[in-house]
Amino acid sequence: MTQQWVIKPLVPEEVYTDRQEFLDYFYEAALKARTRRTMSTVLLGQRRMGKTEIFKRVVNRLFFEQDHQDPKAVIPIYYSFPDTFKDEWHFATEYVENFMRWYAAWKLRDPRLLSAEIYQRHKLINLIDSKSLFSETFKATLELLEAIIDKDVILPEKRAVWLPRRISDYDDSTIVVFLDEFQNTRLPHYQFEVVGYMQEAVESPTCPHFVTGSAMSILAREILGRGSLYGRFDSEPCEPLTGYFGSELAHKAANYYKTTLTEEIAPVVAERCGGNPF
Prior knowledge:
- This protein has a five-stranded parallel beta sheet, sandwiched between helices.
- It contains ten helices and five strands, in the order H-E-H-E-H-H-H-H-E-H-E-H-E-H-H.
- The relative contact order is 0.17.
- By secondary structure, the chain is α/β, with parallel strands linked by helices.
């Protein structure tokens, strides 16, 4: 397999600049979860600071640099909250199916399982059901998904967000959940609550959650700064690139897109773009 990503980064390798500190931090924090000493963490920063790109690259590294047959390996799960759901049933179905796809893709080292076009839901379910390497705890997820689709479960959104922790706790395994656009867990047009049920999900030594989002004020003040999630997350601030790295990124982007950029103008571009010329 020549593809070395399970979730494709947006920024080309020839352009990607700096951020090594965050890449190393979250990768090491994920691995340390095996010792049950990792706290759920939020990556905070303004829009366009490369937070999503950091998460994607860490997830890819966790997926390919570990032995998927090692029972002590850390299972990475990635999910980006969209800005709309029809209802709680829609959310729960999507969240649970996404978890199943990532978990199965990890266990079988097959990124194709993440694609609903390649592996439709029924095909994924049959595959999981046929493999003895999946624990009975995880296979019970098939029944949960069926119950949610049939609307035969109480509080489906609660059951969905609790699922990764429930499996990691029962199997004494390690799962790390990366959640992007986390501010979308609380939107005014939702007729159901997700944030309140997240407390039990994120407060787990077997299943820490790493979250980030593009609406820093909502995420920091309204979701994590008060209510049920207050004090449940460690915080890592993601600042704009320094003048040096901002200029370097401007030059790399210019070279990649075959554009001429003078030495004098590169720092100006970096400043005008708020620290992220890409």
